[in-house]
Amino acid sequence: MDEQKRIVAMNLSRLIAESGKTQAQVADDLGISRPSMNMWVNGVTMPRAGKVQMLADYFGVGKSMIVEPYDSTGAMESMIRRIAEYTCRLNTDGLKKLAERADELSQLEKYRKEEDNVD
Q: Which fold has domain 3-67?
């Protein structure tokens, strides 16, 4: 498997896992054949540019999150941008709910960063 196929395979596997869906569900959602999705995730073939964009849109990430080596800093920045975009769409009541939910999540140990869990 060449390096580019390996990178795409690893990134797709991670994005699918993070989405909580299966390869089959993602393929069905996007109208992509299941065998094609499987070959991309296993690094046998690469999705064409149009499919890369479709995947990026589906997962709410930039194309670079699919075709470039995974960078946890870049991933964090991407998530922060997505949260900011969602926040801009909310009215006052929605912002209050978001803040309440963020507060609830921050209190749960399983969602805290490791360095915040040290007693």
A: 434 Repressor (Amino-terminal Domain) (1.10.260)
Q: 5 is written with which tokens?
A: 């196929």
| Residue range 16-61, pLDDT digits in tens | 998 999 999 999 999 999 999 999 999 999 999 999 999 999 998 8
> And the tokens for 71?
């960078």
DSSP-assigned states of every residue in 47-104: --HHHHHHHHHHHTS-THHHHS---HHHHHHHHHHHHHHHHHH--HHHHHHHHHHHHH
The domain ranges of the chain are 3-67, 72-109
Q: Specify the pTM.
A: 0.62
